């Protein structure tokens, strides 16, 4: 790598070959404003906000995508540059629905922030857009094209990172829109509801379909008994919504806040995660020992499940039949809990707090009614519960640490790491080892499956039995491993892998589509480390050690994979159309 | 197939064309970069790009359906609405524009009681605009199917269109 | 053997076909048989002879008489009078016959007529007959190259000829080839950009229809020069006759061993496929064209990397315009020195212009680089129609510049026009007479840009929309003086910050229209 010497705003700068003007300027203390740029994505240069002058060139250059060249003299703050940026921003605003105070992105909007940065106080151009229809077809995601600034990030993440290709650019020129196939609405598309488009949207054009109002309604209804569960990854991110450092762990504060919001019982999805390990772990051990179908592929991530049903239906019989923790919890809240508390299931409202938008789709799947009622009634994202907490006037950061309620609140360290990529694998191996050998795994930190590498592989020695495992997060990475497995199965009749963990979102649930605004790969990694830290701090670190889990099998479920457990805790999959995502036939 | 009772013949014909389409696009199978070629063939065959043909091309070429839609809508040559038996295209290239192409277009729209991009109710004519067709010497030019009419004054217009049944 | 007394050439191009050329041809053949002249008179099809708007055109040799607007009804009279009795049929004779030569002005100021280069064969040979092309010296260039020249020699020759790319930007072709030859790669592509979309331009179409083998030969030489393996002709979907002809030419060339493996028994292998565009002006931009060739939406790519380093499917790719490639075989056969004898010092060779609008004889002309606008309009275009006066011209297509009467003496070449903040562009010259409403003209141009913007970047997508709002208001006399300033400011911002040349070039028509015709704009606004 050669060093590049140049000037930025008359300051000498020396950078490595390949450095963009944007990064070089930062090095000498100049922040060039950007809008469409995102650290995780390949620069597209659509907005033009980051233009700079380079002496000797008639047109300006985009700082985000132009690499430094020896001897260049660059001006990032000339009068002309400032004027161009303001005109561009004004053009964007003239075509953007500016109802900022009532916008979902108010105070978190990158466009709003840019207007403040550039000191916009007046507008010359009239508003110029035809109001377009808001896409409400999906149970998970709302798309408001009137807010869209066509930066293209959502399309990039949907096509390049997630390889779902639900969203695409359509039409041309001034008529360009981002939409799904045939403009049929995301609910009638191959969208897997992962919500990464929401995560990357700089404005309020994409957001979850909210059920905040409905949850307030049931909380206020004395005839309803409202139970709440919170996913592992929520405790590593909720603090961000209250001004805490990314990566702050708030398990206890979260339970305390929910209790003060008057939920009737505050449980924890982590309990169900431990249960998942026993159900799925038993299935794995059974398949490994008795020559069943291998690999076993995890099933906790509903975005992944719909993806599999759409693009890899031939692998559906390899996917564990165990439901996700959310749905196990839901089914038990209206059966087990209902029975021991003597509350009729029709009075119970099961609410979950999830880092995820796909969970909204999952709870609405027609087969998710093992309790004879909809097992989970409402799914709130991390962002939605934060809004409710703020509305209730409770500052999470000031809350004491409180445990969740019994009998579905206790959890092990294995459960809490479900929220980070590799965590389910690690948790499963800890228990599988015990189930296969009858002995406890001594070193509980299975390092090769940790970290932000897209596809991770490891071979674990279980008393002489070598288990080949793979972990993928982000659906583009999932494709890599699934294509490999598909080829192996086709050509050799078997795959080299025993267990594969797949999470739809990059980083796992800590990077989910329902998480606080501002996710990027660095932040996802920090949130993940928080969960790994909580794991270390907990009295039990293996799911099968959790006393509440032992209790539920003794009192209610008999044993893992029992008939009752199967009825309540397991599911089946469908094949879906690659055109509209609808179910084609039962597999 | 009792559903064919109230058939509209155009549709039945269209159904019959799919085996032909399969044959025509066989050489592009699994080749996403040949999408535009395949779309040209389909549009040649059907006169437009029916939804089902788009889906078939998406499947055979292994191009996501949203991408197929995105590409079709980008290029003005492609159409997703059925065309009339005859296409009337008014040239609005610069040379035709100076020589009154706009007025010709208004006249066409008025006489046929339809708008640019639409088809008359009897499916006799579709009206469209076209950018420069290189018949600038004949400006203002109107293209009816493959025939070019030059210096189309509004008086002549209906005589010309009347020739196309 | 028959002694053929007369050859009747019938021009078959998109324009004449639409005017009923086939019917005239049928009638002609029948009538000749009927009159018993079929042993003495032959009817030949040829490509366009560069006259538009005059219906079906016939040329009768050896007299070299042009007939225009011929209908089947005229045929019996024409055959009887001219071919039987030898009396040209005056009522159909085209009086303003187009120049079949290029006019060069010698130092003495005298006009001198010389043969055409690019359009040499157009209108003379049957474009569907490879033998006629060969008989006219075709494929001698590639033979010479394969037998006597290294790739480096070819690049050096093109470099030395001073040929500038004819697509619009005027980048030196030899330099582009030099980059291409120096870029390592086991697979390299040559793309012929035939997505001619500049309004008022149809020069590429006429080359494709009139002399398709010349293009193939140009691509072959380019392929040999840069170690290319495959060629693509990206052609406008609307150009059905061009597509037909180039496809046939490729088949014929392949059958003659001029395309495919081991061409002319050398080690050089090269083949060409035709890909149809689908109606997007932006695809004339080379990176957008490549995206389109890859089956995608035609959004321009960021540069660098340039196509020459990473183009089609990431491989080194040379993109040249049709007219550029049509010059290649002539340069190779006659040498760079000969080529430099045409044109100006900085801008060698000839240029094909399309003259349109309010001129007496609209059509296609090939002139030496550096010919004045006045000569092109008045010598070739026959002056302003119906005795009106010249008001202005839009030169270079929509992305070109408006020029006023005081610019009539400007020399038309890439370098010189740039000095006047104008551009040669595609070579379209739209002539406007005194009655033309310039505000309305600019309105048409801006609507075109809004329609053709790809939508990728903010300045172009939203800038063109704002420009259209402003010009519509000005045209409707609903605007204020400040709106004109805003018009200029937006185009300046677009020039500075648009992603690709499409948005960057809108400033040209706007600023030039306001430079030469400001009063007309001012009279429409209130202060």
Explained architecture:
The complex is a heterotrimer of chains A (587), B (165) and C (527). Helix content of chain A is 34%, strand content 14%. Chain A is of the alpha/beta class. Chain A has 3 domains: 75 residues, Ubiquitin-like (UB roll); 84 residues, Alpha-Beta Plaits (2-Layer Sandwich); 375 residues, Rossmann fold. The longest helix of chain A has 21 residues. Chain A is globular. Chain B is α+β, with helices and mostly antiparallel strands and 165 residues long. In chain B, strand 3 and strand 4 form a beta hairpin. Chain C has 527 residues and is of the alpha/beta class. Chain C folds into 4 domains: 87 residues, 3-Layer(aba) Sandwich (Glutaredoxin); 209 residues, Rossmann fold; 83 residues, Ubiquitin-like (UB roll) (Roll), CATH 3.10.20.600; 85 residues, NADH-ubiquinone oxidoreductase 51kDa subunit, iron-sulphur binding domain (de novo design (two linked rop proteins)). In chain C, a hairpin with a 3-residue loop joins strand 3 and strand 4. The interface between A and C is medium-sized, with 37 and 31 residues.
Question: How is this structure best summarized?
Answer:
Chain A is an alpha/beta fold and 587 residues long. Chain A folds into 3 domains: 3-77, Ubiquitin-like (UB roll); 125-208, 2-Layer Sandwich (Alpha-Beta Plaits); 212-586, Rossmann fold, CATH 3.40.50.1780. In chain A, 34% of the residues lie in helices and 14% in strands.
Kindly list the characteristics that best describe this protein.
heterotrimer, A: 587 residues, alpha/beta, Ubiquitin-like (UB roll), Alpha-Beta Plaits, Rossmann fold, 3 domains, 5-stranded mixed sheet, 4-stranded parallel sheet, 19 helices, 34% helix, B: 165 residues, alpha+beta, Glutaredoxin, 2 domains, 4-stranded mixed sheet, 45% helix, disordered N terminus
Describe the SSE topology:
The complex is a heterotrimer of chains A (587), B (165) and C (527).
Chain A: E1 3-8, E2 11-16, H1 21-27, E3 51-54, E4 61-62, E5 73-75, H2 79-94, H3 110-117, E6 141-143, H4 153-161, E7 168-170, E8 177-179, H5 196-200, E9 206-208, H6 212-219, E10 225-230, H7 251-260, E11 265-266, H8 269-289, E12 296-297, H9 302-311, H10 325-333, H11 336-341, E13 348-354, H12 358-363, E14 378-381, H13 382-391, H14 413-416, H15 423-437, E15 455-462, E16 465-473, H16 475-492, E17 499-503, H17 521-537, H18 547-557, H19 563-569, E18 574-576, E19 583-586
Parallel strand pairs in A: 1-5, 10-11, 10-13, 12-17, 13-14, 16-17
Antiparallel strand pairs in A: 1-2, 3-4, 3-5, 6-9, 7-8, 15-16, 18-19
Helix pairs in contact in A: 8-10, 8-15
Chain B: H1 9-16, H2 18-25, H3 35-46, H4 51-61, H5 65-74, E1 86-91, H6 94-98, H7 101-112, E2 125-130, E3 142-144, E4 147-149, H8 154-162
Parallel strand pairs in B: 1-2
Antiparallel strand pairs in B: 1-3, 3-4
Helix pairs in contact in B: 2-3, 2-4, 3-4, 4-5
Chain C: E1 6-11, H1 14-18, H2 21-34, E2 41-46, E3 58-61, E4 65-67, H3 75-84, E5 101-105, E6 111-115, H4 130-135, H5 140-148, H6 151-161, H7 173-182, E7 189-194, H8 203-210, H9 212-226, E8 230-235, H10 240-255, E9 271-276, H11 286-293, E10 317-321, H12 322-334, H13 336-340, E11 350-357, E12 363-368, H14 373-380, E13 390-395, E14 401-403, H15 414-419, E15 428-433, H16 438-452, H17 458-475, H18 481-497, H19 501-504, H20 507-516, H21 518-522
Parallel strand pairs in C: 1-2, 7-8, 7-10, 8-9, 11-15
Antiparallel strand pairs in C: 1-3, 3-4, 5-6, 11-12, 13-14, 13-15
Helix pairs in contact in C: 5-9, 5-12, 6-7, 6-9, 8-9, 8-10, 9-12, 16-17, 17-18, 18-20
């Amino acid at each position: 790598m050669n060093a590049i010497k140049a000037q930025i705003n008359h300051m000498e700068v020396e950078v490595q070959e390949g450095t963009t003007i944007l990064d070089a300027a930062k090095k000498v203390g100049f922040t060039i404003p950007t809008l469409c740029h995102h650290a995780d994505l390949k620069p597209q240069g659509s907005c033009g906000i980051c233009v700079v002058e380079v002496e000797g060139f008639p047109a300006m250059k985009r700082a985000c995508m132009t690499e430094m060249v020896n001897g260049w003299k660059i001006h990032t703050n000339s009068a002309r540059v400032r004027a161009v940026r303001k005109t561009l921003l004004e053009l964007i605003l003239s075509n953007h629905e500016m109802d900022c105070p009532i916008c979902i992105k108010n105070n978190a909007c990158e466009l709003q922030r840019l207007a403040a940065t550039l000191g916009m106080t007046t507008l010359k151009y009239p508003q110029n857009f035809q109001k377009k229809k808001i896409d409400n077809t999906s149970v998970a995601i709302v798309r408001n094209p009137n807010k869209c600034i066509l930066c293209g990030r959502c399309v990039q993440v949907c096509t390049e990172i997630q390889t779902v290709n639900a969203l695409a650019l359509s039409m041309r020129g001034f008529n360009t829109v981002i939409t799904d196939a045939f403009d049929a609405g995301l609910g009638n598309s191959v969208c897997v509801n992962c919500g990464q488009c929401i995560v990357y949207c700089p404005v309020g054009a994409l957001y979850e379909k909210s059920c905040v109002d409905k949850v307030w309604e049931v909380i206020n209804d004395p005839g309803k008994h409202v139970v709440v569960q919170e996913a592992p990854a929520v405790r590593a991110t909720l603090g961000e919504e209250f001004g805490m450092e990314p990566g702050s762990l708030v398990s206890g504060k979260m339970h305390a806040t929910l209790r003060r919001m008057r939920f009737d019982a505050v449980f924890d999805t982590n309990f169900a995660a431990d249960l998942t390990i026993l159900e799925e772990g038993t299935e794995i051990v059974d398949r490994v020992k008795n020559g069943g179908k291998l690999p076993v592929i995890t099933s906790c991530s509903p975005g992944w499940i719909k993806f599999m049903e759409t693009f890899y239906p031939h692998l559906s019989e390899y996917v564990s039949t165990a439901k996700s923790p959310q749905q196990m919890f839901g089914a038990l809240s209206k059966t087990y809990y209902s029975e021991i508390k003597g509350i009729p299931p029709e009075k119970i409202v099961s609410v979950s707090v999830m880092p995820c938008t796909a969970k909204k789709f999952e709870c609405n799947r027609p087969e998710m009614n093992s309790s004879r009622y909809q097992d989970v009634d409402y799914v709130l994202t991390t962002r939605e519960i934060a809004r409710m907490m703020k509305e209730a006037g409770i500052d999470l950061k000031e809350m004491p640490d409180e445990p969740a309620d019994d009998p579905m609140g206790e959890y092990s360290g294995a459960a809490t790491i479900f929220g980070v990529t590799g965590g389910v694998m690690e948790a499963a191996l800890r228990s599988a080892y015990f189930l296969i050998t009858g002995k406890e795994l001594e070193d509980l930190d299975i390092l090769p499956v940790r970290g932000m590498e897209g596809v991770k592989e490891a071979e674990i020695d279980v008393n002489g039995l070598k288990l080949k495992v793979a972990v993928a997060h982000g659906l583009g990475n999932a494709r890599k491993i699934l294509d490999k497995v598909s080829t192996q199965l086709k050509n050799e009749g078997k795959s080299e892998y025993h267990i594969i963990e797949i999470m739809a979102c990059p980083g796992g649930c800590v990077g989910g589509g329902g998480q606080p605004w501002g996710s990027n790969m660095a932040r996802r990694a920090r949130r993940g480390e928080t969960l790994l830290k909580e794991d270390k701090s907990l009295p039990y670190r293996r799911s099968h050690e959790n006393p509440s889990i032992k209790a539920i099998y003794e009192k209610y479920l008999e044993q893992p994979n029992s008939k009752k457990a199967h009825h309540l805790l397991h599911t089946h999959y469908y094949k879906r159309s690659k055109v509209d995502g609808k179910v084609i036939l039962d597999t | 197939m009792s559903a064919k009772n109230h058939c509209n013949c155009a549709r039945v014909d269209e159904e019959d064309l799919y085996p032909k389409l399969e044959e025509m696009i066989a050489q592009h199978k699994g080749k996403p970069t040949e999408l535009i070629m395949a779309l040209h063939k389909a549009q040649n065959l059907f006169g437009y790009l029916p939804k089902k043909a788009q889906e078939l091309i998406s499947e055979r070429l292994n191009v996501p359906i949203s991408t197929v839609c995105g590409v079709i809508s980008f290029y003005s040559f492609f159409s997703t609405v059925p065309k009339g038996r005859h296409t009337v295209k008014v040239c609005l290239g610069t040379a035709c524009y100076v020589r009154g192409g706009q007025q010709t277009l208004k006249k066409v729209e008025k006489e046929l009681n339809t708008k640019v991009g639409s088809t008359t109710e009897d499916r006799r004519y579709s009206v469209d605009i076209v950018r420069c067709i290189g018949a600038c010497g004949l400006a203002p030019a109107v293209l009816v199917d493959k025939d070019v009419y030059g210096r189309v004054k509004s008086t002549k217009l209906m005589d010309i269109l009347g020739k196309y049944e | 053997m028959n002694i053929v007394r007369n050859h009747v050439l019938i021009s078959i191009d998109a324009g004449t076909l639409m005017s009923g050329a086939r019917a005239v041809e049928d009638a002609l053949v029948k009538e000749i048989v009927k009159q018993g002249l079929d042993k003495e008179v032959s009817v030949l099809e040829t490509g366009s002879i560069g006259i538009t708007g005059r219906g079906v055109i016939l040329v009768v040799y050896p007299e070299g008489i042009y007939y225009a607007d011929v209908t089947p009804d005229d045929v019996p009279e024409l055959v009887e009078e001219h071919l039987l009795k030898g009396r040209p049929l005056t009522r159909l004779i085209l009086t303003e016959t187009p120049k079949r030569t290029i006019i060069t002005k010698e130092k003495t100021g005298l006009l001198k007529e010389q043969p055409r280069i690019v359009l040499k064969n157009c209108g003379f040979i049957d474009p569907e007959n490879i033998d006629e092309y060969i008989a006219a010296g075709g494929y001698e260039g590639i033979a010479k190259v394969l037998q006597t020249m290294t790739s480096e020699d070819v690049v050096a020759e093109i470099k030395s000829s001073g040929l500038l790319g004819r697509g619009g930007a005027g980048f030196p072709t030899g330099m582009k080839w030099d980059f291409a030859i120096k870029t390592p790669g086991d697979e390299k592509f040559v793309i012929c950009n035939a997505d001619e979309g500049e309004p008022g331009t149809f020069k590429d179409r006429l080359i494709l229809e009139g002399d398709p083998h010349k293009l193939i030969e140009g691509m072959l030489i380019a392929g040999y020069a840069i170690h290319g393996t495959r060629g693509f002709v990206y052609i406008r979907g609307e150009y059905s006759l061009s597509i037909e002809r180039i496809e046939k030419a490729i088949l014929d060339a392949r059958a003659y061993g001029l395309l495919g493996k081991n061409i002319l028994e050398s080690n050089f292998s090269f083949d060409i496929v035709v890909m149809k565009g689908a109606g997007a002006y932006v695809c004339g931009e080379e990176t957008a064209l490549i995206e389109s060739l890859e089956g995608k939406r035609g959004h321009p790519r960021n540069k660098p990397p340039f196509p020459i380093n990473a183009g089609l499917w990431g491989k080194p790719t040379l993109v040249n315009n049709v007219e550029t490639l049509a010059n290649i075989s002539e340069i190779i056969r006659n040498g760079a020195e000969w080529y430099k004898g045409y044109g100006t010092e900085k801008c060698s060779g000839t240029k094909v212009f399309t003259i349109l609008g309010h001129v007496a004889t609209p059509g296609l002309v090939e002139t030496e680089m550096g010919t004045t606008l006045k000569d092109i309009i008045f010598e070739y275009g026959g002056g302003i129609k119906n005795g009106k006066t010249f008001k202005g011209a839009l030169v270079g297509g929509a992305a070109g510049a408006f020029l006023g009467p005081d610019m009539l003496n400007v020399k038309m070449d890439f370098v010189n026009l740039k000095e006047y903040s104008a551009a040669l562009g595609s070579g379209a010259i739209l002539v406007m007479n005194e009655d033309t409403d310039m505000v309305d003209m600019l309105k048409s141009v801006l609507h075109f840009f809004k329609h053709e913007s790809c939508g990728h970047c903010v300045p172009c997508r939203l800038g063109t929309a704002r420009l259209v709002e402003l010009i519509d208001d000005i045209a409707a006399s609903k605007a204020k003086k400040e709106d004109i300033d805003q018009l200029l400011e937006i185009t300046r911002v677009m020039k500075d910050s648009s992603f690709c040349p499409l948005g960057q070039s809108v400033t040209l028509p706007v600023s030039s229209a306001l430079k030469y015709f400001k009063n007309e704009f001012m009279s429409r606004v209130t202060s």
